[in-house]
Amino acid sequence: MAKEPYRNRIELLQGTLDLLILETLRWGAQHGYGISQAIRTRSGEVLQVETGSLYPALHRLERQKWIVSQWRLTDQNQRAKFYDLTAEGREQLVRDRTKWEAMVQAIAGVLGPLPEPEA
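-> structure tokens emitted (119 positions)
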């Protein structure tokens, strides 16, 4: 069965994009295109973050002081804004991952097999 990409922004749960961005930046600073490519690649080509969703999320995360940005040169010698996690961003990532894992367990409980009725 071929994987169908999530192209509709509404299909991603609110806050999920923030979590994906913070997780991507956990391993080091990255420019916007690099963040979107990392999400696409790590999701097995299923999640494709459009520019219209990515940059507003990056600006929101920056306003919340969870990330900082700095203009630098890419490997191709082009000027780009690189984003990096702050200490507050790392703490938020831990909180968001904990919430996400609880949500995954809750959904798995609903989708899982029904418990056997008690005799």
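The chain is about 50% helix and 15% strand.
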